[in-house]
Specification:
signal, Putative da-p36 protein, three-stranded antiparallel beta sheet, mainly beta
């Protein structure tokens, strides 16, 4: 069962320092553009199937753990038992590939032990962990205290991709395999290191403490409540949003 997403805070990225705005990089599109520049109109691209060609080594993916910037501080003291926590990850530089791959991150929970989380990273621009099922209505009325910082996850690709073009031109074969390292484009963040191609998924992490106790709650002006509510949208129906159980 998917937990309800709190959507009012999705625009937190506007309140933290933004380093770059590169969007979502499509690896398949990069391969298509590479082939088009050298051989003609692309019929097929595959990172996992050689379609009968020789000298084939399918592309594999390696993913590092999430790295938070060194001065990233957590809010560790809760005001009372009615305070809960929310975790947000917003990817400013994300990836769309034919692969499924995950990353690991360790976060503190409720002044207790750290929790290890794993979430899908491919084709993801937003992740939320809402363990206490905090609702939008409660969130818009509650007092919040948060800390934000930048993060990065290094994703590596090794191997080859297959291509087929509609018509052969000159000496270029109609079908062939190309090492993925030749998709290097430093302007887009694709960096070759040895026999691998790397891309850093980067963005902002937010750890938010939400308190609903009336003794500590600051009643928001109606205009602010209306403003928060106006930000709502259905994240569960958005394919690149992940709500962790």
């Amino acid at each position: 069962m998917i937990k309800q997403a709190v959507t009012a805070g999705i625009l937190f990225c506007l309140m933290v320092r933004v380093e770059g705005n590169c969007g979502k990089l499509n690896l398949t599109k990069q391969a298509e553009e590479y082939v088009s520049k050298r051989g003609g109109e692309v019929e097929k691209i595959s990172f996992t199937d050689s379609h009968g060609t020789s000298d084939w080594e399918p592309t594999t993916v390696t993913v590092g753990d999430m790295q938070l910037e060194k001065n990233c501080k957590y809010k560790t003291k809760l005001k009372n038992s009615k305070c809960v926590v929310l975790y947000w990850w917003y990817m400013t530089c994300s990836l769309l590939t034919p692969f499924n791959f995950t990353t690991n991150v360790s976060v503190p929970y409720m002044d207790k032990e750290r929790r290890n989380l794993t979430f899908e990273l491919n084709n993801t621009t937003f992740v939320q962990w809402n363990l206490d099922s905090l609702t939008n209505e409660t969130y818009t009325q509650a007092t919040t205290d948060s800390k934000s910082c930048n993060f990065s996850v290094e994703v590596g690709f090794q191997g080859k991709f297959f291509y087929e073009i509609q018509r052969q031109r000159g000496d270029n074969p109609k079908k062939n395999n190309v090492d993925v390292i030749y998709l290097e484009d430093r302007g887009l963040g694709l960096i070759r290191k040895g026999s691998s191609l790397y891309y850093n998924v980067t963005g902002h992490f937010k750890h938010e403490v939400v308190c609903t106790d009336q003794n500590v709650q600051k009643k928001l002006p109606q205009k602010e409540v209306a403003k928060r509510r106006s930000r709502k949208r259905s994240l569960s129906k958005t394919p690149d949003a992940r709500i962790l159980p």
